Target: DUF421 domain-containing protein
Amino acid sequence: MWHNLGITPLEALWVVLGAVGIYAAFYLLVRAFGLRALATWSTLDKAVVIALGSLLGRVVLGYTPTLSAGIIGLATLFAMLRLERWCRAKDIRFLSSRPILLMAGSEILPEGLRRARVVEDELYFKLRQAGICNLSEVAAAVLETTGDVTVLRRGQRIDPLLVRRVPNRERIPADLMLPD
Model:
């Protein structure tokens, strides 16, 4: 039967181990280089991602890829995604990122920029994209767990529920927040 599938049980185990290993390595590299590594891609970044996909596919499937190995590798990667989602739902912190406060009111927070690995010019770009013409229009800017930057504008007070998981949220001026 295994001969008809084109893969032996040992080869299938190697596919699973390769998929888990490459997933773990990818996760650690994203953590090391920061969420911004995945947020906004240039044309070169997209080309690199295509090349990485090819490389990762060869690592997961081994030297003689078969349909069976492809299905096992794909199923393993989806299982890893499900495991990550489950860990996030259970609030297991070693897998889930936390948002990072980049601006509190019109004040840019250098420690937030450093932690997020965002330079001021990138922040200014995100502010312009949000239609901000003056820093005084900003209530808060947050690097989200997806790597995107959310800009909250002044004008309406912020519901504390929206920033409950944002570290340093107390730095947002009280007059910009709804009372608890």
The chain is about 50% helix and 10% strand. The beta strands are 100-104, 107-108, 138-143, 149-153.
